[in-house]
Write a structure and sequence with these properties.
With about 260 residues, the protein is mainly beta. The protein has two helices and 25 strands.
Length: about 260
């Protein structure tokens, strides 16, 4: 599962940490400073473009999304380009090495040589895609949460679940919404935007959600959510920080 901070150009996954610059990125996949590897992206920097998103496959392939909405595939030191899409929001590679593209509320799946629409009857405006710890895909739509279980999709909405933020999800469908699962198996749902109050919820099964009162914990806002490679929750309180980590027992400031 990838977690992305586009503003700071820091990307982390279960076994990868990446710091992106204009002409390449540092890749860390070990436990010591010598494990940092510099990967130049000359083909991209020469075009006056820059990387906004990085997604790792289970093998050695890396997918990169640029600021100019180009998608590149990097393998064994070689670059190739995938079809051009305007107004991309995110790029995601699941544990089965499927490549997903989220764009303007629509979801596309890479089926060589094209990105093909991935449609659900009666479901519109997909705003986020991720995986849980077991590798099940999770999507957030305009008014529901979807989770893939084998060949079937669970649709979690107001008819079968207690989702306190569902009305907010519907009326403010363009707001940033994220679901992450931490190492203890708990799901965290955040809804955040500069113009509206932040909301944070916790669940053990995606059906019963508990509202987290931000006035009673150190982070007083939720500008964004991430997970560490070890599965701890990271909350960005405001744009640019401060940062807090929740390790399952307590909130720890990372700005000390």
């Amino acid at each position: 599962v990838l977690t992305i901070n586009q503003r700071n150009s820091i990307i982390t996954s279960n076994n990868h940490v990446v710091i992106v610059s204009r002409n390449g990125f540092y890749h860390y996949a070990g436990n010591n400073k010598k494990a940092w590897e510099w990967l130049p992206l000359l083909e991209i920097s020469k075009s006056r473009d820059k990387i906004r998103d990085v997604a790792f496959s289970a093998g050695s392939t890396v997918y990169l999304k640029s600021h100019h909405d180009r998608i590149y595939r990097y393998n064994s030191g070689k670059f190739s380009s995938l079809p051009f899409f305007e107004y991309q929001l995110s790029l995601f590679v699941d544990q089965q090495n499927n490549v997903w593209l989220h764009r303007s509320g629509e979801l596309y799946k890479w089926q060589d040589p094209f990105f093909c629409p991935f449609l659900f009857e009666g479901i519109s405006k997909i705003s986020y895609i991720t995986e849980d710890n077991s590798g099940k895909l999770i999507l957030i739509s305009e008014s529901s949460i979807l989770r893939k279980d084998g060949s079937k999709w669970e649709i979690i909405d107001e008819t079968n679940a207690n989702i306190p933020g569902l009305d907010i999800m519907y009326y403010y469908s363009n707001r940033n919404k994220k679901i992450l699962e931490t190492k203890d198996g708990k799901y965290w749902l955040s809804i955040f935007n500069d113009k509206y109050p932040d909301s944070l919820y916790q669940s053990e099964d995606l059906y019963k959600w508990e509202y987290i009162d931000l006035t009673k914990i150190p982070p007083k806002g939720v500008h964004n959510l991430y997970t560490t490679p070890k599965g701890d929750l990271i909350v960005v309180e405001n744009r640019g920080g401060p940062l807090f980590k929740y390790d399952g027992d307590q909130w720890i400031s990372l700005d000390a």
